[in-house]
Amino acid sequence: MDAVSNVAAPLLAGFAVAAIGVVAADSDQFRWPGAVLLCLTLAALLFVTCVQFGFHARRHLYSPADITAWWSEEEARERHDLLREEHATDFQYWESWRRRAYAAYTGGMVVLWMGVSLVLLPPTPGSSPDTVFRWAAAAVAAGAAVVEAVWSTYPSIKRRLQRRRLLRGNP
Q1: Which of 58, 156, 157, 166 is the most buried (most CB within 10 A)?
Q2: Which residues, in sequence order, are CB contacts of 144 under 8 Å at separation 6+?
Q3: What Cα–Cα distance (Å) separates residue 4 from each residue in 8, 90, 103, 119, 120?
Q4: Buried-state track 50-78, b at ≥16 Cβ within 10 A, e below 16
Q5: What is the rounded CA–CA span in Å between residue 28 and residue 97?
């Protein structure tokens, strides 16, 4: 979680913002510069959102050893039940913010790959020698967006389907 929200997402947000500058400066070099700019802007926004969600998640994550370090032995004994309940509640908050950060990161990756795919399209229809290769590269990037979306959503969809089968009595 820390690697995603503190390293990968800020790095990818910076890349998306830099790419926005390139596309905005030379928009005539791209087939659909408006669509590229929209995808890259959404990607940057989602990556920054991931960082923010990760920040909110991190403040709710701590261990029982941390609690012991924060409170004296006597205070911890007196407040044992309250501290346990508070820790459990904070862990639920962490899990909620973690899921949001993961969703923002995944969404950012999907939209970034879509933007890359649009960047790779040949700027004009024609028969340039590299047109086939540019279309192939754009297809690979679009495929990466699809794979990212499927790969990221598959585990949760699988869990939901398994729960549904169990509730219906069909294991």
Answers
A1: 58
A2: 113, 116
A3: 5, 20, 11, 25, 26
A4: bbebbebbbebbeeeeebeeeeeeeeeee
A5: 41
Structure tokens at 52: 């923010």
Indicate whether this model's pTM tops 0.85.
Answer: no
pLDDT at 100: 94
Dihedral class, residue 118 (left if φ above 0, else alpha if ψ from -120 to 50, else beta): alpha
Residue 127 has pLDDT above 80, yes or no: no
